Structure formats: C-alpha cells, structure tokens
Amino acid sequence: MRFLLTVLFLTGFQLFAQHLEVGPIYSNPSLFSKEEVYTIKAGGNTFDSTIIYLPDTLSLPFFDDFSSNKFQQYQTNFNLPGIYSTIHYQLMDVSETFPLPNNQKFTEIPTFHRYYNLTTATFSDTLLTQVNLKYSNLSSYPVEYEALSLYPAYFIYDTIGGDLNQPDTVWIQNPNFIQDSARQFFAPINDPLKLWVDNYVYHNFRYGLNPRSLGVASFDGLNERGYPYQIGTSITNFADRLTSKPLNLSTYSAVDSLYLSFLYQPEGLGDVPEATDSLVLEFYAPDMNQWFHVWSVAGSAVHPFKSVHIPVKESKFLKKGFQFRFKNYGSLSGALDHFHIDYVHLRPQSFYEDTLFKDFAFVYPLNSLLKTYTSVPWDHYKNSTTNKMTDSLKVMVHNGSQNPENYLNGSVSFEQNGTIQGSFTLPGFTLAENQINYAPRTTHTSYHNLTSGAEFAKTLSGNQQVFEVKASASAQFPNFQPNDSTSFYQDFYNYYAYDDGSAEAAFGPTGTQSRLAIRFDPYEADSIIGVAFHFVPTVVNTSNNLFLITVWDDNNGKPGNVLYQDDAFSPRSPIYGTNYNQFHTYYFTDTVKIAVGTTFHIGWRQLDGQRLNLGLDRNIDNSSKIKYSVDGGATWLGSPFGGTAMVRPIFSTGLDNVLSTPDLTIEKSTISVYPNPVSDQLYVKLNNELFLGTIQIFDLFGKQLMETTSDEINVNSFASGVYLLGLKDVQAPFIKFIKQ
Question: Which residues pair with 394 in a beta bridge?
Fold first, then answer.
C-alpha cells in the first residue's frame, strides 16, 4: 500500500486509501463570541429591545497595521450612559403622528355587516368602512411606513324581525394587523481608537506568511461567529467584509493627493484561493448612498505581501461620511480561499510613488523561552537540575526601509506582578543575521541561546506559575514604535505543550482502526491523568465518531507497548470548543493515573474511518514527534508535512488533588496471554496466576466477538488474524494476540 499526504480543501469530502491527511479549518472558534454589528437583536419578529449603534466620524490619517485590535466593540447593556431610546408603533394615523389605539385590529380581507330577514329568509351584505392608516412591521431600521386601507377584523350578523334583533359580532382569529410597538435603543459611539465598524474578518498573528509586522486581517469563508457561511456546499460568493468607520473628507479636494495604501497576500499559511476568487476594495459615496468598485485582485498561490496605492480624487467621495471596505469572493463552506491584508493607510499629502511602508517590526510573536516546549508542569520544571531555557529562540524582524539600517541591541525579559525576574540581551549583530546593517526591505531570522543566562526561579512555591515575557528590538531610524516590541505569557500548569495555541489547519489519519501517536519526552518520569485535544470542526462533522485514548511506551522512537487504552465500551468523541482555540481535556477512565517514563507516546485508536481533525499549528514544526499507523500498530509512519499536533498530556500534580485519581495498580507486564500465536486454547494470566474473571475478545474493528468467564478460551473457530483481549472490570490495556 502506498501512503500519501493528501491536502484536503474543497476536495476534502472524499476518503481514499488509509493515510494521514491535513486540511483547512472550516470554523474559527476564536470568533464564536462576537456580537452582531450595528444592531443586537433580542429576538422575535421586530427590533424590540434592539441597540442601534451610531458610529463616530473619524478624521485623517487612518492607519491600521493590525498589531492591535482596532475593531469597534459593541456593548449590550441598555443602561450604559449615553444610550437613549424611542418607541415605534405598527399602526399609525395617515399623518404618522398618532398611534392607533391598542385594541385596534384590522385585516386586508373585506369584512361586512350582514342583515338576515327571518320573514323572507334572505340576507343582504354591506361592506364595513375601510380605515386608512400607515403600517410598519418594525423589522428593520430605519422605520418605514406604508399607506394601507384595511377593514375591521370582524363580521357583524344582524337579524330583522321576530325577537332576535341583537346583532352578533364575530371576530377574525389572528388577523394580520394588530397594534403593537417596539422600542429602539440608540448608542452613540465616540471611540477614535477603533477604526472598523464590523469584524467579520479574522484578526490574527499567525495566518500570514512572513508579514511585515505583527498581525494581519484574514478573509475566508467563515462568518463573524466563526462558522461557514454555507457549510457543506461548493457555492462561491462574497463572504467576509471589513468596513471602515465613516470619515470626514469634506475638507479635501482632488488636488490634496489623498491616497489609500495597503498590503495584501493570497493564501499565507491558509488555503490558496483559485483564480476565480478575488479580494475587492470598494468606496462609499455618502450623498448617493452607493458603493463603488475601485480595485480587485484574483486568487493565486502565496507570494510576499504586495502594496496597493489608490488615489481618492472623485468629488463624490470627498464628503463627510465617506467609507471604504474590503470583501472577498470565494468559497462559503469554511476557512478557504484566504486573503490577508496589512498596513491599511489613508492619508493626505501623498503621491503615486509613495508606496513604501518604512517600518521596523517583529514579524511574529515569540512562543516560549523553554527548549522544545511552550509549556511544562511547574513541578517538573522546578525539580529539573539542568538548564531548560531554549538554546535557539527564534526571532524574526523586518526592515521596511529602502536603505540599509543600523541595528541596535534588543532584549527579552520576564516578570511577575510587574517585577522583572530575569532578562537577556538580543545582540543586534545576531538579529541582523551577522551583517553590518539590516538589509533593506528584508525579513531577518535569528536564533538566540538563552542557556547561559537567567532562568525562571525554581524556588517559587505553588503548583503553577505564569510569567509575562516581553521582547524588544529596533533599528536606528524613525518608525512605528508599537511594532518594535511583543509580549506573551509563559505558562507553567500541569501539562506539556509543543504548540503556540493557534491552529492553522486540521489533520489526522483516515481508515478504520488507524492510530495517531505524539511523542513526549518529559523532564522526569511521572504519572498522567488525561490528555487535552484541540479538535476543530470541518465540513464533515466528526463529533459523533469514536476513538479510544491510548498511551504507549517508547520503542526506539516509535510507539511500543500499550500502557493504557480506553475501555471499548466507553469510547470518546471529538468535542469542539466554543472559544478561541479551545482544548478539551479527556480524563482517563475512572480517573486513573498512568505511570510513564521519560519518553512516551499519547494519542488515539480511532474506530471510524474519517479524519478526526486535530488542530495543526503550522507556525512551529514538531512533525518529527508525530507517528501514525493504518495497520493496527504493526507499522508506524512519520508525518509527511510540517507542523505541531495540538495535543497536551495532563500530568498528576498538586492541581489534580480534587480528582481523587487512584494509581493504576495493574501494569501491562503483569498480564500475559499464552500461547501467542495460538491455534486452539488460549490462557490469560494476571500476576502470574490464571485470570478467572470476565474476558472479552474484539476484532481490530472494535467488534466484540466473545465474552467468557472460562479459564480456557477456545479460539479454534476464529479466522486467522490479529485480535484484542480485554479484562472486564479491571483497569488494564488491551492485549494483542494472533490466531494462526
């Protein structure tokens, strides 16, 4: 069998041979909690209890390099200062001055007064008088009324002659027009530090490929809540948009040289947009209430960020209330067809060749000051006797100047509660890749050895620690200062992590009974109590698929003996988070502790054939730690693509004292089956004695074939092959045996 890497994007619906697959993320949990833009609706068929936001108008210059969040935040508290409200009615008089009484009901169906003559047994009908009014369904803002002529929502039946001379009124049930009201709340916004009125795009620091500074805005097929616009389809249409706040251009003229500049890149570390996809820029003419197309680019494979420089000269745009917006055309089924933008800058006194973004900046945030890991258990770190600081801290900076620029030394420090605990110098010569100057318009990558300097203080008590790490670097020319620094938090909890917390793709093996295993080399032997996985939803929902958490010891760099595996009667399923790149922790059955050495592997044995879509961090490459098997664990293969599996084993520390986790007292070495291979009779020993409890036998597809309490198991009727034996009601891993 030939095993291939299959990159699944829009073609990712099919499963072919068993292999390891990687694909895009079709949802973005980091956007789950975002609010509606402009209005936040309480529900129902009207806008009752809805906040209408009135954005402020900005002055030039307009500048966003996406190093920080400049998206307007919308509060839902109706009692905030400055919020006021108005009430609107569905039924108004013809002048739209007075509301009709609350008990008024109307219908578009003609209604009548019927007169019935008892003497002649005949009747005659007279239409009821129509009422002229104004009506609004109160479903949109601003409120608009239409003129209608409606009938009273009842019939009158009247008898003439005899004793029955009282008219009867029969009301129409549930007429279409009933007086109702809705209250709108208005929230004026005055926040000049926020530049955008919507946030459908994904503001991030990881999706761009070698951006020129920290942060980009990414366009894809996910809505503002991080879900596909139309999941499971091949439909392409306009998807994300990014709209500026209104701007006042009324004081400028065509001779003032107004220019809008920005950088863009297709694909990045995401999905490549096809040639039929595009990124579009539009300008808004406020007096005409109309958007105009001014620029677009077709999809293509990734390339370095390119600059775009567009004049704003037409008089229809030089008004108060001018806006611009970006939007992408592509697949609506997920995080596909990526475009990324950066350095959006609208300014006067520019000119057509003014396309240089002269800035010195960090390209990516730093990840960790530790060697190999981004997080380790605090007790493991403080018990270590060797220096665990990284010997290769990766720093990427970009010189946006068109000239060589002199370097300055940078620094890295870590602190707690505002007190610096340690610091390092980042030599400027090293930052510049051992050159005399930073080369013009070039990204420089350097590696720094921190093993001979400060360490996180191992004398600190407690079960966890968090340090704020700050880094800075600069060049000797004026530039945008915020991009000269970056920071992150170095966490020490109860788990090991390789990843930076951001998934750019999803991956996993395909094929029934496939295995995925991630190698860890902890600082010390200990016990683990569970594992945290970051599963991401894709176009195929696998949350009902089954897998068994598995822990292996090490066999020359590959998974060896099974130390733990979930009971076949208690399989797990992927659980998707509801927040930013959220991990879900799965504790072992009965919260047992599994003893592991200084090298072990953890992952799963899946019972279904579909890819389970584990998060893949494409910014850090630990692909050498990933192994997978599609033949029941007989052969283990390495990952054919770069990245880090988002798997975090949870260790037993002082943090798990509330779990009441018992120690696992039965080790694999104390359980044996013989003879193995077997032809007829199979025997099971526990602690060198015959096991007389309940024994279960499964095939490699997880199907139970036998359950017995006999001390002699006859497998003569089994076909030749590999089987799994488990001990019911005993915490022990499955044992593999071969039927000849």
Answer: 447
pLDDT digits (tens, 9 = 90+) for 425-454: 999 999 999 999 999 999 999 999 999 999
Tell me 34's DSSP state.
P
Q: Phi, psi (5° rounding) for residue 255?
A: -90, 0
Q: CA-to-CA distance for 634 and 1, rounded, in angstroms?
A: 14
Q: Token pair of 410, please?
A: 């940078």
Type and span of the H or E element at 380: helix 378-383
3-state secondary structure of 254: helix
**Three-state secondary structure string covering 120-150:** CCEEEEEECCCEEEEECCCCCCCCCCEEEEE
Residue 258 main-chain phi, psi, to 5 deg: -80, 130
Query: Tens of pLDDT along 580-593?
Result: 567 899 999 887 89
Distance (Å, rounded) from C-alpha 449 to C-alpha 565?
A: 40
Bridge-based pairing state of the strands 6-7 and 20-23: parallel
Q: From 555, 565, 588, 563, select the one nearest 667 (Cα to Cα).
A: 563
Q: Tell me the C-alpha distance between 601 and 614, whole Å.
A: 16
Q: 3-class SS at 538?
A: coil
Can you give 559-607 as a three-state secondary structure string? Answer: EEEEEEECCCCCCECCCECCCCCCCEEEECHHHCEEEECCCEEEEEEEC
How much of the chain is helix, strand and coil, in % rounded to 5?
5, 40, 55
483 with 474: CB under 8 angstroms? no
In angstroms, rounded to a whole number, what is the distance separating the alpha carbons of residues 435 and 29? 42
**Residues 6 or more apart in contact with residue 638 via CB below 8 angstroms:** 623, 624, 626, 627
Q: What is the pLDDT of residues 253-271, one digit of tens each?
A: 988 899 999 999 999 998 8
Ramachandran area for residue 501 (φ above 0: left; ψ -120 to 50: alpha; else beta): left
Cβ atoms of residues 702 and 568 within 8 Å:
yes
User: Would you say 528 and 634 are in contact if contact means Cβ atoms under 8 Å apart?
Assistant: no
> From residue 606, how far is each of 22, 506, 509, 547, 650 by CA, in Å?
16, 16, 9, 4, 20
Asked if residue 242 lies in contact with residue 319, where contact means CB atoms within 8 angstroms, the answer is no
- Residues 332 and 221: their CA atoms lie apart, in Å, by 4
What is d(CA 626, CA 517) in angstroms, rounded to the nearest whole number?
6
What's the rounded Cα separation, in Å, for the pair 199 and 32? Answer: 12
Q: What is the DSSP letter of 241?
A: E
Distance separating alpha carbons of residues 730 and 736, to the nearest angstrom: 16
**C-alpha count within 13 angstroms, C-beta hemisphere, residue 135:** 17
Nearest Cα residue to 60 out of 322, 446, 343? 322
Cβ–Cβ contacts within 10 Å for residue 306, how many?
A: 12
405 bridge partner residues = 438
Contact 533, 662 (CB under 8 A): no
340-393 pLDDT, tens digit per residue, is 999 999 999 888 778 778 889 999 999 999 999 999 999 999 999 999 999 999
Average pLDDT, stretch 318-325?
Answer: 98
Q: Report H helices in 141-266.
A: none
The whole-angstrom separation of Cα 204 and Cα 214 is: 9
b/e per residue 362-376 (b: at least 16 CB within 10 A): bbbbbbbbbbebbbb
> 365 Cβ partners below 8 Å, 6+ apart?
205, 214, 486, 487, 488
Q: In what order do the strands lie in the sheet with 181-188?
A: 39-40, 50-54, 181-188, 84-89
Cβ atoms of 404 and 437 closer than 8 Å: yes
DSSP 407: B
